Amino acid sequence: MTVTDLVSYDDALATYDPVMGLEVHVELGTKTKMFCGCSTELKQDANSQTCPTCLGLPGALPVVNEIGVESAIKIGLALHCEIAEWCRFARKNYFYPDMPKNFQTSQYDEPIAYNGYLDVQLEDGEVFRVEIERAHMEEDTGKSTHVGGATGRIHGASHSLLDYNRAGIPLIEIVTKPIEGAGERAPEVAKAYVAELRELIKALGVSEARMEQGQMRCDVNLSLRPKGAEKFGTRSETKNVNSLRSVERAARFEIQRHAAVLSSGGTIVQETRHFHEEDGSTTAGRIKDNAEDYRYFPEPDLVPVAPAREWVEKLRAELPELPRVRRNRLREEWGVTEHDMQSILNAGAVDPIVQTIDAGAPADQARKWWMGELARRANEGGVDLAALPITPAQVARVCALVAEGSLNDKLARQTIEGVLAGEGSPDEVVAARGLAVVSDEGALGTAVDEAIAANAAIADKIRAGKIAAAGALVGAVMKATRGQADAARVRELILERLGAEG
Start and end of every Asn/Gln amidotransferase domain (predicted)? Predict the structure, then answer.
């Protein structure tokens, strides 16, 4: 089904209620894999970070990564989950071409964390509670590279290459309970939930949660049911969606696709789907198995995990300030509205602003530059704010140069441009480009006298009491000094020269 075959979004929601389930996989930032001592460092030679255990060779025995368990508990606590007093791993049997053991070590009916929730704030300030079914530990698969096809997928490829470096890297899978009642805002809720979860994961320090690098990815489960019905419809599962915008688009497309199929008398197939960034569509993957088809059974080579209550409570006490609480505190400290804070959050500017303030800049100036000039440049370049080649300390230095009168706003923008271009620190850019404000009274006086002489009619108006006309002379001086004069001081000198009072 193509985009043109869909029913309109409004028509879909007029007839059906969407029900979602979101499964988010988080790759933990541990130094070693979940069940062996192999490094998790990225971008190494293919198959160079493997051992008999993660390759599933006969006789190799796994050992649980303690930091992986600790990270799972932290995530569970931050999601208001109950932490199991006793849980164990299971083997999930399925044909995994990129999992050399041909089964995945995961958790099935006994997860380490369960029955929690996460409150998320939508763009208009409404808070929506997403209930969490479970958070469980497992391992990642390897990486398949399909060669010879036009799409990069297995269909049409001449052969495939397998890299097992990623196989065995610790994952936490966070599964929501069915999300009902979101109505037309379901795609927005999905995006907001994944965004809030990403911020929470980063705050806990258990993963960088970089979606573009696959460190965090979301499976979007969606079904429709007729208005007023209680029974859930058949669901589809759009796999491995790796950006916030794509999560929202995938949910929206599937709502329209399901509605089109159902409205035409068709039947929804329970299957996996592939998401396509170029047009926001999804296409069929494979028929989705039920849990019993995976033939789960307890992992015989691993002992159960029984976190001591003292350890759990110690981790609870050490939890950092959670993102939503932090944002509310910062909003009050900065004196901004809910709308402004949401804009800062949407721009990814919270941490850069905080770090700029920590480096000595006033809060209003830090916000001004990150949400103004720097946000504009990030948008033009199609990159995140954090990806710009300028540090919060450098932005704080620009703020300091403006505060001390060495730069005005125009010159500060040029300084930032130089830093972004790799020309050095703010002070080095100012020196190399000759951007410092002209503060020498003699030079300013000469420029003012020349502007007065060249604009005699305007000068006469000022002498006659039309003080507003001074703006034209200020502009002339600023042009003559390439914007490097202190405009306020220039105005003072003009009025002094012409015997007028400001």
Answer: 351-498
441-497: CATH class: mainly alpha
Alpha helix ranges (H) inside 229-322 = 244-263, 309-317
Nearest one of 31, 64, 487, 7 to 252, comparing CA atoms: 7
- Name which of 397, 321, 385 is nearest 356 in CA terms: 397
Helix (H, G, I), strand (E, B) or coil at 146: strand
pLDDT (tens digit per residue) in 21-67: 999 999 999 999 999 999 999 889 999 999 999 998 999 999 999 99
Cα–Cα separations (whole angstroms), residue 446 to 191, 386, 450, 456, 493: 59, 44, 6, 16, 10
* Best CA proximity match to 214, nearest among 183, 240, 189: 240
DSSP per-residue string spanning 180-201: -S-GGGHHHHHHHHHHHHHHHH
Domain boundaries, the chain: 3-314, 321-433, 441-497
Q: What is the dihedral of CA 439, 443, 448, 450, to 10 degrees?
A: -160
Categorize the per-residue pLDDT at 2 as very low, low, confident or very high, splitting at 50, 70 and 90: low
Strand 297-298 relative to strand 281-287: parallel, antiparallel, unpaired?
unpaired
Bridge partners of residue 104, in order along the sequence:
92
- pLDDT tens track for 218-249: 999 999 999 989 999 999 999 999 999 999 99
381 neighbors 403 (Cβ within 8 angstroms)? no
Here the tokens at position 109 are 């009916």
Place of tokens 């044909």: 95
